[in-house]
Amino acid sequence: MKIALLGYGKMGKTIEEIAVNRGHEIVLKLEDDIDNFELDKMDIDVAIDFSIPKAAFKNITTCFKSDIPVVCGTTGWLDDYEKAIELCKKENSAFIYASNFSVGVNLFFELNRKLAKIMNGMSDYAVEIEEIHHTEKQDAPSGTAISLAQQIIAENDQKNNWQLDHAEADEIPIKAKRIENVPGTHTVSYASEIDTIEIMHTAKSRQGFALGAVVAAEWIKGKKGVFSMKDVLSDQLK
Ligand SMILES: NC(=O)C1=CN([C@@H]2O[C@H](COP(=O)(O)OP(=O)(O)OC[C@H]3O[C@@H](n4cnc5c(N)ncnc54)[C@H](O)[C@@H]3O)[C@@H](O)[C@H]2O)C=CC1
Ligand SMILES: O=C(O)C1=N[C@H](C(=O)O)C[C@H](O)C1
Fold first, then answer.
1. How far apart are CA 59 and CA 42, in angstroms?
2. Is 186 one of the catalytic residues?
3. What pLDDT digit, counting tens, does each position of 168-180 carry?
4. Is this prediction's ipTM beyond 0.95?
5. Minimal CA–CA distance to 112: which of 201, 229, 234?
6. Between 20 and 30 A from 11 (CA), which of 32, 67, 123, 193?
7. Residue 137 catalytic?
8. Chief localization class (predicted)?
């Protein structure tokens, strides 16, 4: 498969290593404005975007216009997500966004949903999310923490929003910490006066995120439509 890497930083480089090991070819490594490239004239099967929040929407929609399927892991651009979906459908292209491509985090999401269902109505327990990432991260809270909050909100009758740091009674507080070299740690806790129930996912490296993105790229090639990691992992997440 011929892959365009939109963003060639920490994730782009890790994806390259895994993709090449799986027999794919990297035909573009983008580090600046996508307008400088004539995608129509290039032979690209799938684009994988791990760039920066400011660039993601333009990168993604430029690919849709050239009928190139996109796997996007960039976080911090979701105010434009619905517009991107509309454009994908209009151009009859293909798209997967995931706040986190690792299989482990997608299993953790399932656990989070189940725990949220159990804890709904347990008014003695206060829910909180904490995320820890490296100091170069541009956005806070992390996309994964936002996904965790949305999954809890879908199950919890008392919560209808999330807030960075200090939250109102109907909101879930998300604490974001930045510590050098941490690839990504997420904790969901329910604390009462008596005890605390906690679930945690700790990434030991970027390998899981990158492998998941390459597997998603292999999966989406030749498809049309808007998909999620749940579709890609449907066999594992039954
Ligand atoms: N969904 C997931 O599983 C994961 C998502 N991420 C997200 O992926 C993104 C990238 O993360 P890292 O690689 O750690 O960041 P990074 O800062 O190491 O790399 C970003 C790269 O984007 C490049 N860039 C700047 N402007 C660009 C443009 N207009 N078009 C294309 N590229 C451009 C920069 O030169 C840089 O090389 C972040 O938003 C991060 O939150 C990171 C890890 C996992
Ligand atoms: O910026 C990162 O590094 C990561 N970003 C993603 C997020 O915002 O959730 C996923 C992962 O935790 C690493």
1. 15
2. no
3. 999 999 999 999 9
4. yes
5. 201
6. 67
7. yes
8. cytoplasm
